[in-house]
Amino acid sequence: MEITDLITLLGGLAFFLFGMSLLGEGLKKVAGSKLELILAKLTSTTFRGVLLGTVVTAIIQSSSATTVMVVGFVNSGIMKLANAIGIIMGANIGTTATGWVLVLAGVDGGGLLSSATMFALVGFIGIILYFFCKSQQKNHIGLIMLAFSVLMSGMQTMSGAMAPLKESEFFLNFISAVSNPFLAMLVGILVTALIQSCSASIGILQALSVTGVIGYEVALPMTIGMCIGACAPVLLSAIGAKVSGKRTALVYLIFNITGAVILMVPFYILHSIVGFDFMSTTASSIGIAILNTVFKVAATVLLIPFAGVLQKIVVRLVPDHREGEESSVEDILDAGLLEYPSLALEQSSVAMNEMSAATFKNLHSALSLVNSFDQNEFRKILGREERVDRLEDRLGDYLVKIHGKSLSDEETCTSAKYLTYLTNLERISDHAVNISELAQEMQQKKISFSPIALHELSNCFEAAKEIAALTAEAIKTDDPLLVHKIPPLEEVIDILTKDLKSGHIARVQSGECTLELGFIFNDIVNNLERVSDHCANIALAILEAKDPSLNVHEYLDSMSRMDMKEYRNLLRQYMEKYHTVSGSELVLVDKR
User: Fold this and answer.
1) Is the domain of 267 the same as that of 366?
2) Are residues 430 and 467 in the same domain?
3) pLDDT tens-digit profile of 199-216?
4) Residue that finishes a domain, picked among 446, 470, 499
5) Which of 49, 255, 374, 444 is the Cys-Cys partner for 43 at CB 3.0 to 4.6 Å?
6) Distance from C-alpha of 294 to C-alpha of 146, rounded to nearest angstrom
7) Could you tell me the residue range of the domain that residue 221 belongs to?
8) CB burial class (10 A; 0-12, 13-18, 19+) of residue 406?
9) Is 228 in the same domain as 239?
């Protein structure tokens, strides 16, 4: 083999690997940005996980990529380890798709699409669709066609460069040496660990089969080794992961090694007794594809009933000394998921709901302290405030990184909406802390509000709790029925707080209340008013994400995007509920 052949081989390998990557990306885009999300959610049983793992891996063309993704799912809490096992098994089957594509295309000269002219034509049509069509779907299809052309051109280049090897004495000696099953398996492991793709290494073996000097006594164990070598990138992805991520990566390794042992040991025992004739024959591209598929399907079928046993083994091998502790922000927002924006946004939603729960829990607790101060509860409020601040910092940074990825219009709107949530939730938590500190000041100074002031405040507190509950639920569900209830309630709270201030000023002037208590009362009311404003901001962010053409300022001024009759009815109900209604105010509402 001359130096020019070696350079040609390396160039063909580069085209092949790039074509595989491009093909997976194009197929994933056609399948939609929710592909990873579907994989994460629809795995309630091991069998369903196997099916989904097979389909997704066939699309993205790499079992390692699927399993690395699953490690990220489990690591961040999207998926349980038990559900991940089925996907890992299915990923092994799905990765056989590439081998059959290469058989169809005829890497050994006998396929249905073996003409180089056909590949060139496919690539030409693909480049036209990719560059000149306005439809995004046609662009993606063009990318797939272009990727397929690059992939097959690379495979043919490799096959052509390897053809002289059949006359190379060094290569023939090497093949003789690796006819030992263990050595052939080791070569397969090393090759796949180096290029980090079982599909690619099987493709290289298929290209090598055109030399005509590779027998099944070498191809079979080498194929098995390549399956085991695919674990290398998965194990690397688990470095730095938490315990659940490490367990998931270990499942992949144990599954492949166990499958190799339970299938190959009996096979070689029988071969030594009976002697299978096909083992001494020359391996072909289609034969290698069959070996790869049969091994992976058989291993999966045999090990599906033992999925629970696999889980127990990895739990025993990788114990978790932190079980029962609160998950960290870093656990929730796994950096490994940033390569999958739809999943990263889904995890951002999980973190956002946790931040929302902590924020509104603080508000409820702070309001209770005004009536009955408790030092332990005050400390809990401060602790939750620290977690809210951590979530804001980490989630804000995470969302900025998501923005740097290729996002759909819907994902861009969702990301912008979450950033608005962040700011407003953090401010609501700050106002809750302010109220709790005012309650602490009253307790330290041993002063309290009059029964009339407490009664008036309790009415406003109930309104604040209701708008908080509506907002928390709207963040979870994006339910427009809930969202539309928030602006009229915010307007009622504005009326309530205005009346509270006026009434308390009158009590201070009449001597029924001290000036010092007047300042505290006024500060509590101001914080409540700001809380309702931030809840209204969140509601408007939800509406704006659903309708990007919405002009928030116009909406606030005229409520033109809301049914005015609905708005008036809600406003009337809230005014009556919280006793803010006079005859003139009802007339005003009816005239809106």
Assistant:
1) no
2) no
3) 778 888 887 887 787 888
4) 446
5) 49
6) 30
7) 3-317
8) exposed
9) yes
